[in-house]
Give the backbone structure.
Amino acid sequence: MAANIPNLSQRKFQETEGEREARDAAGFPDVEGSLPKHIGSRFNIPFLDNVTSFFGNKNVLAQEVDPKEHVVWLLDNTAYRPVLGSSEERPPWEAEFVAAYFTRDSGKDVSGWVAEIADRLGLGQHGDNRTEEMATISKRLIPFVNTIQPARFVNVRFPNGETQKLGPGGRNAISSDIVGTMGNHKDGATLAVTAIPPEVAPYGPMLMHFAEPHGWTVVSDIDDSIKITMTMSPIGILRSTFISTPTPITGVPELYKHINSHLSPSWFYLSASPYNLYTFLRPFLHQYYPKGTIILRDASWMNLSGFLESLTQGTEDYKAGRMDKIHDWLPKRKVLCVGDSTQSDPEAYGDMYRKHPGWVKAIFIRKVVDVEEMQKTDKNSAARFEKAFKDVPKGVWKLFEDPSELYATVESLKAL
C-alpha cells in the first residue's frame, strides 16, 4: 500500500487542532528539534539512480538487485478479488506487492547517533545498563540509517514456481505493483512469496493472505492499541522504540485470539509508524497476534526527527486514506475497527462509517487512562467521542479499558 505519502509540509497542513495542542503540551517540537534530521544522505545514492528514480516504476534504466550489494524487504500483503461492477463472474485474485530496497551494510556506523539518542533519553553515563541499552539502540537505529536504493527491481517466486518482477522503486526506494492471476486459493489461506535469490531478502519471504469478497475484516491500530508505545510522550515513544522490549497491551492478545476464533477475519494492522519499523513490528505481531498485512507510513527514511512527526501529525487523514484503499479492495466485507484514544482513531473510524455506509459494523476504542499525559487533554472526554462518532449509532462503537469487556460483544457480531 505504497501510495505517495504526505511529506512534512503536507503532514503539517493535515495536522488537526487536537494533534497540534497535544504535541505542543508534550513538548514534541522541542524533542524533534534536538534529534538528527538527516542521518543518511541522498549523496550516498549513485547519481544515475538518484536522477532516474523520478521515473518511478517506468524507469527503463533500473537494474536488478545484487545480493552482494543490496537488501530487499518484501512486505506482507492481502490478496482480494477485484470488484467488476455488476458482473457475476468470479474474478481472479490480485494483490498489491510492496518492496523496499536498501544498500547492504550501509547503516553500520551509527555510534554518533546512538550516543545522541542515549543522552536524549537520559541514560546513565556508565555501567552495564548503559552498555546494553546502547547496543539495543544501535540495532534498532539501523533501519533509519540504511541508505535507500532507488532504481532497483527484484524478481520473486511463488510456491508453484511462477516468477514475477517487482519494481523498480521510486524516490523513496519503495515499489508497488498490482499482480493478478495467482491460482486457486481458499479464503484465509496464506502462501510465502520468495525473493530471487532468497539471500537478498534477509527478513524472509512475503506472506500473502487471501480474503474473499465476503466475511469479516479487522482493521487494527498498533501503537497503544495492541502495543505499549506511549504515543503521548516523545521520550516515551523513543524509549519504547529504541530500548524497551516490545510489549503487548494486557489482555489484547487474548481478545484477538477470541475475535479470530469467532469471526475468522482477515487482518490489517494500520499504524502511523514509519516503514522503518517494519522489521521491528513484524516479529512482535507474529508473536502475539494473528498474522495479517501491516500498513505503515512512508515518512522518515534517513530522518529520525521525522519518525516522531509521522506518529503524531496528520494521522486522521492518513488512516482514512489507507482505509479507503482497503475499502476499494474489500467493499463487501464487514469491518471491525480497533483503536485507542491517544491519537485520531475515533475520528478516522467515524469518518469511515459515514463515508462508506454499511461497511464498518463495529468500532472498539481502548480508553487510555494510565498515562499521565492523557490527564492534561480532553482526549477521554465524552464530548470528544460524541463529536467523533456523530451519526454513528451507539450500538456500533464501544469504549473499553479492560479487553475482557468485549468478549460478549465479539460473539454477538457473528449474527450480523
About this structure: The two ends are 29 Å apart (CA to CA). The first strand starts at residue 63 and ends at 64.
